[in-house]
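Instructor's aside before we start: the two examples that follow are unrelated to each other. I chose them only because their records fit on one page, so don't look for a connection. First example below.
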Amino acid sequence: MSGVDPTELVAGAWQLRPWPAAYADLDDLLLEQGFHGADLLAERHARLDGWRHGDLLGFAVREITTGESVGEVVVRIEDGTASVEALARAGCAPQPEAADAVRRWVGGALGLRVS
């Protein structure tokens, strides 16, 4: 798939900002996920460039009224199929409605099958 325009979504109390626009929290989130050193740099690069390549679309999940970063939703695209994964930050509850909104967007706006 070719590039995808970064798109901001809203899911109830959650603002979903594409990583290129919300990169300030990305390193902290990746550190929480166990990335360090060269692996952290490579993963940051992949997340920030994923929209341009159309294969890795990441969204920062933020509480809409406070802007608090509570996690991310990651879409991995391969052979016309997308997988959607929601990851909560340490100490934050998972936000399934955020992942559901991204699944609907992937299926509707991008026309991809979601596994």
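Example two begins here.
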Amino acid sequence: MTVWLKIKIRSESSEVVTCAMANTGFEGLGADIMLPMDLAKRLGLWPPENADIYAVRTASGVAPIYRLRNYVEVEIMVNDRSVAPVKLTPIISDAMEYVLLSDKALTALGIIIISAGEGLWCLRDELGSAIRVSCQPP
């Protein structure tokens, strides 16, 4: 198992609640959130008006990604408290099937991975006092 976080993504025109993979191997340029094309469309982010286009290697070959120059607000959804949203840079990829949070996005959101293999995590201010379980991936 990996760590999956229930999040709310809010764009200027829409919002979506989903599960996102906490992926420390995704070393973004900043606090980035990788979105599949269908989710980007639901959020009103596709087609992008202002984006940088990159070619990246994937398991199936080279694919384009679109790094937007604006932000989305992302909030960790937990049952027992409110967590302030943070601004993340959306990256859109047609090669992705689920949402990925970059290493710097995890830091911005205050996420601490306790056990990647068991899907356990906590918020930075809960370290040593709380253990949270992953949501069910899409």
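The first strand starts at residue 4 and ends at 10.
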